[in-house]
Design goal:
The protein is of the alpha/beta class. The chain has one domain (5-229): P-loop containing nucleotide triphosphate hydrolases (Rossmann fold). The chain is built from seven helices and ten strands. It has a six-stranded mixed β-sheet. Strands 2-1-4-5 form a four-stranded antiparallel β-sheet, covered by helices on one side. A hairpin with a 2-residue loop joins strand 1 (5-18) and strand 2. The protein is globular and about 50 Å long.
């Protein structure tokens, strides 16, 4: 049985205005990602990986080309339509956590479900499960200022996966973490990938993340240099 693609990108070009000219951040990018993949966009700073991730997530727009994500032509959707797709079908993990400082772990994780109008009884079940997934049961009533960086990032992960999104995008999720916490985070995400149908896309140049990936797409100067599937990840 064939697996459907969650991302289809064809002849993608992204340019930014610079003075009287422009800078081409992405050029002639063709990319397909299937449901359930665990993929890394890898490359040095300035290679275009974060720009590509932002376009996939509808946070930025392509200059030319087609971008189809979760059966939606992103370039043809309005700002509000893209926001709805993100809210209902995507999860995001950033290196800066982006937690609300006055909210507890439980309240931060619950927020996406409130925005999606999930009933309270279902919210309790889903939030409790997500917090158990990341092993933060003992911090459920703690606020970000009372927690370590690793605990804050685990909270951000729980918030990103609480509504079991079809697609999860992570931009340098271990950049602010030490080696032990980085491996713990990646073990959690790898386990979730095998237990859920969620597709994961990372933008990273962190070697620790690369050891968990099942597919590595190398970018340089806005182009895909190579695209390699990993039969047995280093830390599988």
């Amino acid at each position: 049985m064939s697996t459907k693609n969650v991302i289809e990108i064809k002849n993608l070009v992204k340019q930014f205005s610079v003075g009287e000219g422009y800078f081409t951040a992405l050029q002639s990018v063709d990319l397909s990602l299937a449901e359930g993949e665990f993929v890394g966009l890898v490359g040095p700073s300035g290679s275009g990986k974060t720009t590509l991730l932002n376009i996939i997530g509808g946070l930025d727009s392509a200059t030319h080309g087609s971008v189809n994500v979760l059966d939606k032509s992103i370039e043809k959707t309005s700002h509000n339509e893209r926001a709805e797709i993100r809210r209902k079908n995507m999860g995001f993990i950033f290196q800066s956590y982006n937690l609300l400082p006055v909210y507890t772990v439980y309240e931060n994780v619950e927020l996406p479900l409130i925005l999606n109008n999930v009933e309270k009884t279902d919210r309790v079940k889903k939030v409790t499960q997500a917090i158990e997934w990341v092993g933060l049961q003992d911090k459920i009533n703690s606020k970000p200022a009372q927690m370590s960086g690793g605990e804050c990032q685990r909270t951000a992960i729980a918030r990103a996966i609480v509504h079991e999104p079809a697609l999860l995008l992570a931009d340098e999720p271990t950049a602010n973490l030490d080696a032990e916490n980085s491996h713990n985070i990646m073990k959690i995400l790898s386990k979730l990938n095998t237990e859920m149908s969620t597709s994961f896309v990372f933008a990273t140049h962190d070697e620790k993340i690369m050891g968990y990936l099942k597919r590595i797409i190398h970018l340089e100067d806005g182009r895909i240099l190579n695209d390699k599937k990993i039969s047995i990840p280093k830390f599988s």
